[in-house]
Amino acid sequence: MTTMKRVLSVASECVPLVKTGGLADVVGALPGALAGQGWEMRVLLPAYRALRPLCADWPEVFALDDLFGGRGAVKAGEVAGIAVLLLDAPHLYDREGGPYNSGGADWPDNPQRFAALSWVAAEIARRGLSDGWRPQVLHAHDWQAGFAPAYLAFGGPRDVGSVITIHNIAFQGWAEAAMLSTLRLPAHEFHAASLEYYGGLSSLKAGMVTADRITTVSPRYAEELMRPEFGMGLQGIVAARAAEVQGILNGVDEGVWSPEAEAVPYTATRIKGKAANRAALCAEFGLEEVPGPLAIVVSRLTDQKGMDLLPEVLPDFIAAGGGLAVLGSGDPVLEAAMLDLAARFPGRVGVRIGYDEGLSHRMFAGADAVLVPSRFEPCGLTQMYGLRYGTLPVVAAVGGLADTVITANPAALAAGTATGITFHPTDATAFAGALRQLGTLYADPKLWAQIRRRAMAQPVGWAASAAAYARLYDSILRP
Ligand code: ADP
Ligand code: GLC
């Protein structure tokens, strides 16, 4: 029997325990995906209030008496096959609200809350857990874990490799410069090539300058981050470290996201069931069975996602016979704009404000197309659900969207390789053009069936990416 190599994943979200976005899906999927690659991954997360009862009886495997103002204890357990380490530090995490905020306002002590998570990660990497487990690689996700590679690097010689994955550079984990000593960071590292960011500190930048490797969640996003339009002031660092930057596409859990597991199961070759799911979806949203394509949106409603373009492009799409079902939540202005569309186009546009995993499945199973008009998209998961369900993705050609969808241009149509529609730039003109093309393709049943078959055959699982992560970890193993 070969022994498994060990990697500690550090993050603020993980399915099925806590989720606000795709980060949670990825953090939750990686351990299973890596197990087949010879890597045993444990996931360190804060024990938010809702998670405390779960770990109350779990054994304590690590503790610090003074973790940024109180005791922090790490409890070890297993959830849905994932080896989970919950950091129980009530003074930081035992509060009502979301992981980052309450009622829309960020917790003022977020810098300490996530520095604490990162500190514990680095300490575990140095000293190991009381059950004898010590990682060989530390894998930090996003700004919340950005200080973990930094604490590890600043603590002297080390035998543990480190990686930071950028899921979204729009959040940099900013803190005032005066927090330097509170956050246990060395004063001599406060300069532009290290911790300093717009006069303050950025935990994401800290991770990016100290980790052995930087990954992004798609190859295209890695390139984009070297440009000022996408790099949020960190483009210089990404460019300077280009040789150590790698884009590795996210996958989706093909067991969870499978048209064969939906209310009326279907496959690429036995597609008939999709029509029944479509009818059910129309009924659920109070929509007519529209003659044109039935599109869906399942998304956080934020500036990133480009949903403010919908009111502009929708009238023509509806006039041409299309319909739309929206499931999302977020920015109150965008929520109101979506509800307004439903009021303007009764029977043609249906909107649910909220978060509903089950409903999202029924939407992918029933719809003809999924719309993802993002301004930037590090990877994106819903376009991949769309591929798998034969719910053709209509996406802005940015980041992971560009890397996963083959647009139905004449060359791809001639070669039979198209899997959806991409448009560029992210504006109403290009989006409207893509929706017109969607209508045209939908009106040609043979062509539509061909593209749908191709989309459903596209591999969107974790196999290739898990192997890429394993190779990356292997490349930074230290003696
Ligand atoms: P991001 O992480 O930027 O929000 P992703 O596409 O990577 O974008 O991941 C979003 C994840 O959250 C997907 O699994 C998507 O299905 C899910 N999701 C987003 N909004 C909702 C919602 N309102 N209801 C159900 N699932 C949602
Ligand atoms: C971020 C990005 C999204 C990506 C997800 C998981 O939330 O916005 O594009 O798919 O992280 O990596």
Automatic annotation (TrEMBL):
Coiled coil: none annotated. Its EC number is 2.4.1.21. ADP-alpha-D-glucose binds at K19. GO terms for cellular component: cytosol. Keywords: Glycogen biosynthesis, Glycosyltransferase, Transferase. It catalyses: [(1->4)-alpha-D-glucosyl](n) + ADP-alpha-D-glucose = [(1->4)-alpha-D-glucosyl](n+1) + ADP + H(+). It comes from Gemmobacter lutimaris. The keyword Transferase applies. Pfam families: Glyco_trans_1_4 (PF13692), Glyco_transf_5 (PF08323). NCBIfam families: glgA, PRK00654.1-2. One of its GO terms (biological process) is glycogen biosynthetic process. This is Glycogen synthase. InterPro entries: GS/SS, Starch_synth_cat_dom. One of its GO terms (molecular function) is alpha-1,4-glucan glucosyltransferase (ADP-glucose donor) activity. Belongs to the glycosyltransferase 1 family. Bacterial/plant glycogen synthase subfamily. Synthesizes alpha-1,4-glucan chains using ADP-glucose. Residues 6-238 form the Starch synthase catalytic domain. Pathway: Glycan biosynthesis; glycogen biosynthesis. It is an enzyme of class 2 (transferase).
